[in-house]
Structure formats: structure tokens, C-alpha cells
User: Fold these one by one.
Assistant:
Number 1:
Amino acid sequence: MTEPRYDVIAIGNAVVDVIASCQEELIDELELNRGGMTLIDEARADELYAAMPPAREVSGGSAANTLAGLSTLGLQCAFIGQVADDQLGKVFRHDMRATGIDFDPPARESEPATGRVLIFVTPDGERTMNTFLGAGQYLPADALDEDIIRSGAILYLEGYLWDPEEPRKAMRRAIEVAREAGRKIAFTASESFVIDRHGDDFRQMIEDGVIDILFVNEHELATLTGESDFEDGVAAVAGKVPVLVATRSEKGAIAIANGERAEVSAEPIDKVVDTTGAGDQFAAGFLSGHARGESLATCLKRGAIAAAEVISHYGPRPEADMQALMQEKLG
């Protein structure tokens, strides 16, 4: 097996986050799914954008956010996703490259537009996301650079992108290529509604031993296993994947790897400003340790530190010097 060129290669949605602070009343007025993520069409995206208070735009997408975190932590990363040949597509491409992430696929020249996530943040820091996937949901298998996939030590897959048919086929092919090359597969379930729609696929991949590292939060774990009790859900999955990582928001997180269990408390912060990207950055922190062969407990601690940093400000990507922050917190 050849030495990998990249630490992590991710396939995910290429979207731009549009983030605005709002009062609770606006959530009700617009009939939004408070605290959740809802898929919307382009017309609804335009309607919600018109109703938003002043907003800021930053490139997002779950897997892309995780790569941004990994890159700031010194890992070599590449992203596979699809944008349209429009302004938001140019913004996304620029932001990825400026973060040090290789992203070279050609833009889609036809409709739809580049995806966007309209995020309403209430005073308690809770985010309500409304996602128009746009061009990203048409990522075809023939857009994959299989040599790049073979060159990554870890292939990280975003559950959100499993929903549309074309990228689902592309991700299945990427899994085949990565496994043939002896690489690890990491998978994030993303959201319970994705498991509701594709849980049979995910459970089969787990049973078949396709997934090496599984990231879930406690709600996704319950949906995946059918177990309302957290520990029962952990027990149902832990023996079937080499590494299970389950996050529990303010209750911290656990990880089980080959029978070893570790736990971490949530890092204390002065104020929760915006929870957008918390899970993405937890995954980045954890993988930054895993890729370096660090202990399970240290990997979890890295995840908690990264998640705490991102929820202390607006936006889904780190703003602090993450390598310095890790050094300070880990000693």
C-alpha cells in the first residue's frame, strides 16, 4: 500500500451558509423547524432569504466544515463536491483553497444554483437550518478523481449527501475505491431524517463492516438503532464498527474502539453563541488525533475543544489558532 498523500479526503455538500440572528417570533412566523434541519427548494430558499435579518455568508457544508477544521489543525485534506458556475460557487471554491484544502472539480454549468443553507440563530444560540442543496445533489460518479480517493488515508463521507441519488452512487463508488486501496472509511450520519430515509443502507454498511469510524449524536443513534436508551444504543452498534463516536451536546461524548471506551465532558465556555458546526468540528478534532495515532481519550478531548471553539462565535468554521489552542488545552 502506497503512502497516502492526504490525511483526510471528504465527499460532501458544497454549500454556502447564510447566517442571521433573529428573535424566537420569527421562527414561528416563518413556520420553521426550530433547532432542526429542513430541506427546501430554490423558491423557498429565496422566500426565507428575503425574510432574514442582516446576515453573513460563509462557505459551509458538513464535511467541508470538518475539513476546514482539520486543515487548521495541520492535516492535509482534499474535498470532493459540486458547485455551480455562479457567484456562490466562486465564493465556496475560494474559501476552500484559502483554507489550504485541495478542491479542483469543474463547476456545473447548468442549473440549479450552488447550494445554500439559511441559518436562523435565536438568542439562546440554537440554530434552525433550511437547506437548498442545489448543484451539490447532482454530483455524478464520473466526477470522482479515483486517484485522489486512493491517496487519502481516511475517506470521510457526509450522510446528508446520501439523500440524492446521483451523489449516493458516487459515494458508493468512492467507498469501493477506498477499500480496494486499503483506506479507512469514516461516516457521519448527519441528521435523524437522513437515517429515517436511508437507515437500511446505513445499517447494512455497518453489518458488512464497511464503516471504520462512525460519528453520530445521541438522537441519530436512537434513530439508527431503535433504542431510546443511550447506553442500549451504544451497545447495539459498538461491536460492529472499529470506532464509534457518539456526541451528547452539553453532556459530552463517548468513543469506543475495539472494546476500549473513553468519555469526555463538554468544554466550558462563557456563552453559546451559535451551535452551527459543533458536530462538524468535533469530528475534525477527533480525526486530527486519530490520524496521528493518539489515544482515544485524547482524540475525544480534541473533539470537545474544537466544538467549544466553534460554538463560541458565529459560523461553522474555526476562527482561533486551533493548533495553539490544542497545545494550550492539552499541554
Number 2:
Amino acid sequence: MNILSESKMRSIELLIHIFVWGLIFAFPFLLFSRDGWSDGWWYHALRMFVMQLSFVLVFYINYLFIIPKFLFKGRYSKYILVNIFIIVSMLLLMHIWQEFCMHYFSDIDIEKPEGIGPPKWIFTVRDAITMILVIGLSVALKMSRKWVHTENARREAEKNRTEAELKNLRNQINPHFLLNTLNNIYALIAFDTDRAQEAVQELSRLLRYVLYDNQQEFVDLNKEADFIRNYIELMKIRLSSNVRLDTDIDIDASNTARIAPLIFISLIENSFKHGISPMSPSFVSISLSESDGEVTCQTVNSNFPKNIEDKSGSGIGLQQVEKRLELIYPGKYTWEHGIRNNGKEYYSRLVIKTR
């Protein structure tokens, strides 16, 4: 749910104030007929205007002073006592004003029949109930404003926490990625020095991307695709003839989609790490595509689980993927992965909505 900004909340609040008070001031005048305004109309207008003004005064005394000082600080008994004092004081002043008006205007022969209409205490009760409703309105508006402010502050704190966690995860990805790649190069040095040198060059290009573009929140999908292609080329250097590698990186240079950097690399690393056996025939299949705002990365590989002595990568890659997906794309991704085909292959299909 989207929370209103402070500026929007102030604008809406101002419109509510104007509408409500305009309605309150106009309503009593709508109840009079044309005949009721024939004699001393300005007397009735002045009397009702002052009454409505007293309601405005009660509202803003609460809204600006009493609610922040007492209600928001948990001093409820004092808040109630102060409002009782204000209501009694206002009713007394309104009574004095009514008596003054009736006495003053009687000198200019405005006819006021005696003994007609309900007793005065009924009007006093009416005015007291109206003031209580006005106080309730002030509390409702002030609480709404406080809730928006509190919720915005909470959202900002959550955003800062999420950004800090994402930064920490990105910092973990760099050494994790580097560790896995160096392990590959180390294995290559033992039997082919020239190919190991080529691997170091490939690694330097990959690290350039990791060190610079990884610091951005989102990168161009075509750059991420180039990074994956380079990584696969690096992995191909150490593949033996009994490994079948199928790749389909269907992202062209004109693609304008944006994606979180290195979101797929752990899945691809996992395919090479667990999908290759030096002794048995094995395969790795990798595909990456984008259509209608959905990016799909699918990997399928033969399943050769590492033994407990193999600690390369510490197994944190897939955990990082899940954490980053929840932080960056909550509710906007689907990820199916697991062992299938009687334990012979591992399957992963990650779909991310980028818009």
C-alpha cells in the first residue's frame, strides 16, 4: 500500500478543513426559509456566526495544542479534564453572548415571542454534543497526520535497512564469485599454463564488470548477458570432452530492460560446480531470455553433489540469490529449482518481472 507524502497529506488536510468548515458555517443558514429572514436577518446571521466560530476555536485549540501536549504523550486524564473545562467555558461564553444579543436587539424592536419553543437547556446539550463531535474530528485528523508521518518514517527506515543489507550481500558476492573462479584457474594451472593465462585475462574482464557495475542498483540486461557470456567462456576453458555445454543467451544489444546485477551468476556457477564430473559424461544447459518485461534464466545440469571436503564457495550462492530476490523483487519473481529425474539432474528456472 502506498503511503501519502507529507506534502500531499498537508494538501488533502487543507482541503478537508476548508470543506468541513464551509459546510458547518453554511448549514444553519440553509435551514431558514425566506420568511425567517425577513426581520432582523443580520441578527440571526451574527448570532449563528459567533456560535460556529466557537466550534472552530474548540477544534483548533485541540488540534494545535491540547492533542500534541496531552493526548500524544499519554496524559489522557489531563486531556479529558482540559476539554471539559474548554467545553464548559465555551458554553458559558455562548450563553452570555446569546443573552447579550437578545437584550441588545430587543431595544430595536425585533420581535421575540415568549414561551414558544423548547427550553434553553436543550440547546445547551446540543451545543455540548456538537463540541464533542468537533473535538473527535480534530483527534481523527491529527491522528491521521501522525500515522502518515510515523508510517513514512518506518518506510524510510525499512528502505535504509534494505539498502544496507543489499550492499552487504553485494559485498559478499564479490569474494564468493572470485573464490569459485580462482579455484577453476588453480585447477587449470596444473595441466595447461597457456590456457590458465587466458583464463586470467577472462577473469580480469569479469572483475572489471563486478567491481564497477555491481555497485549500481540496476544494470542494463544486455551488459549482464555479456558478463554471463564471458563467464561461460572462462568456464569452457577447463571443460573436458565428456562434458556437453548448451547455451542460449537470447539478449541482444538493443534490449532496454534493467536487472539487478549478478542476480543470475550464482545459478550458473552452481550448474558448473555440481554439473561436471571429471570421470562421467555430464552436461550443462543454460538459457537467458526476455519477453514482455519478464526475464527468464533457466539452468539444467547433471547432478554430481560435492562431498563434504569440497568447501569451494561454502554453499552460500543460492542463499544469496533468495535473499536478494526477496529484497529487490518481492512478489515479482518465481523460482523453481530442485533435483529431478531420479536424482540425475538439477533444474532451476527463475522468472523476474522487471516492470
Number 3:
Amino acid sequence: MGISICIFDAYGTLFDVAAAARIAANEPGRGAFAAKWPEIAANWRAKQLQYTWLRAASDTHCDFWRVTQDGLDYALEAADMAHPELRDRLLALYWELSAFPEVPAMLAALKSARLKTGILSNGSPRMLSGAVESAGIGDMLDAVLSVEQLGVFKPHPSVYRMVDGHFGVQPKQVLFVSSNGWDASYAAHHGFQTVWVNRSNEPMDRLPSTPQHIMHDLTDIPKLAATL
């Protein structure tokens, strides 16, 4: 029994989470922000993830839009750039994140191979709908699954079980792809075949399980799926 479904994390995997800050940095009149945008984008993403873990551990769930705003507020204050207009602009751009360049062709190849595709994300349904629409990939996805159905963020085991229940499959039939090493590791622990898309050449996280495959981008996902 081979792979029949390819499931993707959304933010950082299909969608470029640095795009909002990068676009804003290139807008006229944002010279001060342009000098600091990589640091702000990195802190924004780091705090966004940290707040999901802390809320899951403390049973104080909120939706992903709230932690996205909280992460940005922290990052802007840390850079001494807590300006309301800049905050509003960055949040508006986050609703229009672009997909990584290889995403459309990669998804099209999976669909041509008659594999089902989907997203499993911490993102709220409205956020995911906006990102999918902005990227123009909705017709290449069979499902967009949000943790809001459960009220707990990854890597809680119940999140990965959503895929099994939705598609009616065994974990070994699923190829799960994430740019977050910890996410791919816990998906492997659940029993998925997993790919860590390690775009930044980071070291492997020290966790109970490890992803079976590592790639630098998504280009070869269809080739890998065909061999499993």
C-alpha cells in the first residue's frame, strides 16, 4: 500500500511567511523598516510559533490570527518600531502571502499522478482561505484542515489524526511535508512518511522521531511520492 495523499503544512511550507515584511520593506518611505525587516520577520515568525506551543501547553487556546498579531507586536517593539500604520500594513499583507515559486507546478504534478492533496495547518479557516485564494492553488487541493476544529495547536497528536479521519486512511498512506523540523518529526511519530523542507540548512531538532526525508524545496515531492 503506497502513498495516496500528500499533506502540507501551510505557513513557511507552501506560503512564504517572510513575504509580508519583504514587500513592506520595498515600499516608498520605509527606509527605517527596510534596514531591520529581516530581523523583524524572523522574530515575528519565532514568536508566532512559540505562542502556539505555550498556548497548547497551558490550555489557553486562541486562533492563529491572534498569535500572529501578538508575535508581530513583540517583534516590532523589540526593534523599536511599534508604529500603528506599519503594524496594520504588515497584517494586511499577511492575508496575501505568496506561495513559493515551485508550489503550483508541484501540486499540479501530484494531481496529474492522481494523488490527493491537502493542507494541515495551525492557521484559522479564514486565514487559510485567504492564503489559498491569493496563491491561486485552491483547485489543486482536496482539503484544507485547520486546528480550529480541535482547539489545540500542533504538535498535539490529535491534529495529525485529523488527516486519517478526514480521508479515511492509515498514516502510512500519507506523505506529510513541512518546513518546520519539529512538525515533520511529530508527524513521523504519528506514522506518516515525512519530508522536512529545510530551506535554511538548519540542524535537526532533537525529538522522539525524525523525518525520513529532507529537501531544500518542494520541487521533488512528486518524484518522491511516486517511489513510496
Number 4:
Amino acid sequence: MLDLFLSAFVTLFVVIDPPGCAPIYAGLVKGASARHATAMALRACVIATLILVTFALFGENLLGALHIELNSFRLAGGIMLFVIALDMVFEKRTQRREERAEKVRDEHVEDVSVFPMAMPMIAGPGSIATMMLLTARAHGTEQTLMILAALGAVMVLTFAALAAAGPLMRLMGTRVEAVITRLLGVLLAALAAQYVIDGVKAVLTAV
């Protein structure tokens, strides 16, 4: 059982990639108060966990009933992430925040907990497919619970990484943070393109 837990933990950690999500999250919540950023990080992790658990337990039946293929998640998620990446590179998000300057301070930053953090950044096509694959290979309730426990451990680490990302970025200063935000926007665009490429490849292979 311990071997199963460790195997599932390592697999999910690599796929979800908490250290990789953290700096992207810091760029998305630039200007938010520490309390607001932490609240969004917690909400993103909780929502992502619920999504992954749902797909782990009912994924195959749900997708089959809706006639949706996993490649659809890759394509749709890639397109939506690319739009967010463009905002980060050209600082359109900063412009929108300035236009809402008269609102409550904690509302200056858009709520990114559901999109793009919970899905598709954390609960993306890769992690959904991984959870469905792991639970499909599990034999009995005990093994399924071990996989869900591994998911829980990874999500705790993900929350810790997201919560700590903002303060670390702020310590670097505004100029450095702006450069990093643009760089991460480019990387996020590349990730989005990779989602689309993977989806197209899978579709072409299936034809």
C-alpha cells in the first residue's frame, strides 16, 4: 500500500507541478493583498481537488455520457490559457485594475481561483487523465483511498507553494517582478500552445 501511495504521489506531483504553478500564480495575483491571494490559493486547491476526485471516481462515465473526449479539454484549456498569457505579457490586467481603482481594495485583482488556476492549471487534462488512469488500475476501495490520499498530500503542497509565491515575488521588487511576470506570460503561452498541439496530435492519431 505504501508503494502505491508513493507511486501515485510522485506521479501526481510531477503532473500537477506545484513549484511550476507557484510563480505563474504570483504573476496572476500581482497587486492582491496577502489575505486575498491566500484565500484564492486555498479556493483554487479545494476546487481542483473536487474536480480531480470527481473525475477519478466518475470520469469515464461522465465523459461517455456527455460524448466528450479528453482531447477537448486539451484544446479548450490551451486556448483559454493563451488568452491569459497575452494579458500577462502586454500588462492588460494591470490596465483593467487601474480602471477599477475606486472599488474595494481586495477586488482590484480578478478572482483567478476557478480559472485559470483550479482548471486548467491544476486540474488540467494531464492531471485529470492521470487520476482516471490511477483509479482505473486500483483494485478495491483500499487502493482507491490510497490514491486519493496521495492526491490530498500533493494538493496540500500545492497550496503551500501558491501561498508562499506572492511574498517571495514581492521581495524581488516591482521591476524584477514585472520582468518575471512577462517571462512567465511567455512560458504560459508556450504551455497553452503545447496543450493545443497535444490535443491536435491525439485527434490526428485517432483518425
